[in-house]
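In the previous chapter we treated chains in isolation. Here, by contrast, the input contains two separate entities that must be folded as one system, with a combined length of 513 residues.
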Amino acid sequence: MTMAEKMYLPAVFQGLSITMRHFFKKKATIQYPEQQRPIGKEFRGLHVLRRDEQNRERCTACGLCAVACPAEAITMVAGERKKGEENLYREEKYAVTYEINMLRCIFCGLCEEACPKEAVFLQNNKMAPPRYERDEFIYGKDRLLEPLDAGNSKENIKYRY
Amino acid sequence: MPILAIQALIIVTIFGITLLIATYSTYAERKVAAFLQDRIGPNRAGPFGLAQPLADAVKMFFKEEFIPAKSNKWLFIAGPSLAMLTACMSSAVIPFGNTLRFDGLPEIRLQAIEVNIGMLYIFGVVSLGVYGVMIGGWASNNKFSLLGAVRAASQNISYELAMGLSIIAILMMTGTLSLREISLQQHGFNWNIWYQPLGFIIFLVCAFAETNRTPFDLPECETELIGGYHTEYSSMKLGLYLFAEYINIFVASAVMSTLYFGGFNFPGMDWLEAHISSDPLLAHNIVTILGTVVLFGKIFFFIFFFMWVRWTLPRFRYDQLMNLGWKILIPLAILNIVLTGGGILLGEKLGW
């Protein structure tokens, strides 16, 4: 070390000036519950199972989403539509159960791309919230399906496209 | 005996102010740390997070009071008590202001006790402070605590030497040990820092080491010793150790302001006393109160400086610490004494 370096003081003052500059800088903190980071339109968040214009479920339980899923997060049981249920399900086949494990899901959006019926979508304004129990992360139809009173809910729920 | 009542009031006030400043130093430390790191810091408890120290205290009191099974129980309790006691004692001799004058009363000094060995008193009490750390570290029956305590002891003793030597130059100049006398001699803008810049730097570095602050906080070095001497401490006993550190910072800042930065003096005080009021008593009192405010401004700046340095500099290695203390600071302090002596002799010869 040279004499100037051995005295430590020049380096100390240099360091102090750097931290003092940061003292007056704009803070990077986002006050989370009150203030939220803007989410992009392309954000892939929580899934939703859409209904069509007449409030019928679009999903036909073809299983293509489950096949496309790289994390194997999607399971479903297919069932046949009975007489008198035409106002509930659009196709002749429908998903009796449809479950997505949010702990497995990597939110890649491949299910959305695989779906031939435009039934499953990833919303761009909702994230899977934290929960206390593991089984609470397995989302069934009760939590995935678009609510009935949402109407033709394109305005209520923002989709990616 | 009104004068005794007033004296008691002043002592209680100084004690209260010391504790209050130490309390809010914990808040300021977190706030300063956050600001230096582009964060906001505590802002949830009360407006701007001002109730944070209260919340911390409540948390500390309600945590489990843990005493290790094979430790020496009495010494384990005595450690933090001693640290706190010595920290609180040392602010007694600091002159927080000049005098207040009222009709029919003797002059009131804004100082808890005036002793003519004030500087030695502070040195003695601060040196005792290391016993709190040592006893606590030894009584914990834990090798990390013991290592922290041994480090604290050798570090404090090493740096006390250089600190004392840097003070000797001041004593040679002023010819007194009384902090009040030293303050009064720096009247106006005639501060000691203009004559003793080298001494001040040595004193500053030693003050950092004495208060166990970064870059010399090796006694509580987390990466090597977990918590150092307070590894085994929890609840308010840990709180007392941390609190004592902040009181020590406050006292160190006050001593630095008094010795080198004129204490309660500020430039233009004579002019102000002559012009502010036609009543000489009132003018004197106003200047005294302004001086106290100025002194606290200086103290707050130094407290801020302690924090500023803490969040800027990394910790020294232990051999670097010892080399700095013994091979650089002590020779520099002796050089400073020689230079000061030479300066005083030269001044006498030239009749300054």
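The two ends of chain B are 46 Å apart (CA to CA). Chain B has one domain: 66-350. Compare these points with the single-chain example from earlier in the chapter.
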